[in-house]
Amino acid sequence: MKPQTKYLIRWLAITAFALALVLLFISLFQNFVKPPKANLPAREARAVWMSRFDYTERFKTHNPDSIRAYIDESFRQIHDANFNMVFFQIRGNADAFYKSKYEPWSALLTGTLGKNPGWDPLEFAIQTAHRYGLELHAWINAFPAWRGLEDPIRTTPLHPYLTHPEWVVCDSSGKPMPKSDHYVSFSPGIPAVREYIVKVVADIVSKYDVDGIHFDYIRYPEDSPELGYSHDRISVRRFKSPESNPLNLSWDNWQRDQMTVFISKAYDTITSIKPYVKVSASVVGNYRTSVWNGYHVVYQDARRWAEIGKIDMIVPMIYYRRDYRENSFPTVVKEWKETIHKERPVLAGLGVYTVDWDEILLEIDDARNYGLPGLVFFAISSLDSEKLASLKSTKFQYPTLLPTLSWKDTIPPMTPNNFQIAKAEKQIRFSWATPDIPKDLEVTQQYVIYRSKFKPVDTTRGENIFAIVSGIRTEWLIEPQKNIDDFYYTITALDHAKNQSAASPAVRIEN
């Protein structure tokens, strides 16, 4: 080989190596300055808890207009931040935030237990949530019976704490749980208690267009192992009876079984009334590890509920930091992922009220990395405009569909008809006709408009979701946007279980 050729080859190799280093540096610099967009899911539950205290004590007023305005503005803000679900609390301690046949109006609405507030918070919340394309799940505290140092006043209907004092949980000596500034609970081991709560829930599902029932405090009281809750006479007699304890379960296992019997009956009752209504429960953050856990401390066996198919979504309240030595957030998420083997969504409950916001953003990544299909934020009052803007610019950049629930329904809706887009005066009008009736006769719940610069429009990519609108609408008006003419658009329909129709033919905006 000639010396000139050797030098040329060597020079080319050095040049190629230098060029590779330059390109690597540019890539690293670009990633450092502007991180690549996350691979955002096309389906993810993004929910918030709105407690009864959030909407009744926010402004220290009982004025209905103020409360309604707060609910409306809160729902609008989370919709704009690309959330898709609200757990709205309507029962705290055997009182009602809706028109109940069995329990008195809550004192939080008027200052007086049993006083009609002149409006229906649940009905208003349902209408408002659906207007913004959000699912509304009625949040029920199951076994708490009262809260406060004084007895409930006499009302119509009479508060169940007064009508059934024998239902209160008792300690190992048989003494009823005392009143305090925390909850006094009814005993899950008493069949009449379980039947009563199921009756209350059936009344709600029958009368209201809720998307789900969300149970909280579906457990025995804290300190039950130490204090012996609940050694009420009925529970003890049933535990010792071959008829009520045919498998001769231990005391702990028998009490866990009482919770399972309750959720099974509630699930069957709810779905017999409206099969599409989703049943979920917030549970203790740890399943059975750590000092504070659901399985050993409050006799809560969420894995069993999933195994027998009596729950649709499980929401462990994982209000921990990522750097905790024993209870780190990723460790607990991993435990839940490995615990629930049956196909039931586990949504990570995030403690926005107690965990730093930077931690929350990292916990969202942890939940996604472990394959959890959703997140629930506690609580809506802790999500200020700055945090919502942070979510929308980083983790929730696009709207998303809720996960499908294949065990409830697998039949998709039909495709919306005659999808068109036209420019009107100062507005752009998206319009369509109602889909044909599907085989299961289910009414469309939502429409999803997708857009892309390419045909066909890929409806499996979250970044292509342009809007999600209510199923009662057949048009959607928006103001003109920059480069809106550059896209192809298509529309699909969703049913209650979030099955999706085939997409309509893609169209452009007509000038």
Protein architecture, described:
The strands form four sheets. An eight-stranded parallel β-sheet has the order 8-7-6-3-2-1-10-9. Helix 14 (357-369) links the parallel strand 9 (348-351) and strand 10. The protein has 511 residues and is α/β, with parallel strands linked by helices. Helix content is 33%, strand content 18%. The chain folds into three domains: 1-36; 45-144 and 193-222 and 231-394, TIM Barrel (Alpha-Beta Barrel), CATH 3.20.20; 417-494, Immunoglobulin-like. The chain is globular. It has 15 helices and 16 strands.
Record the SSE blueprint.
Elements: H1 3-33, E1 45-50, H2 52-56, H3 64-80, E2 85-91, H4 107-110, H5 121-131, E3 135-141, E4 144-147, H6 160-163, E5 183-185, H7 191-207, E6 212-216, H8 224-227, H9 233-240, H10 251-273, E7 278-284, H11 294-297, H12 302-307, E8 313-317, H13 329-339, E9 348-351, H14 357-369, E10 374-378, H15 385-394, E11 417-424, E12 427-433, E13 446-452, E14 465-470, E15 475-478, E16 488-494
Parallel strand pairs: 1-2, 1-10, 2-3, 3-6, 6-7, 7-8, 9-10
Antiparallel strand pairs: 4-5, 11-12, 12-15, 13-14, 13-16
Helix pairs in contact: 3-5, 7-10
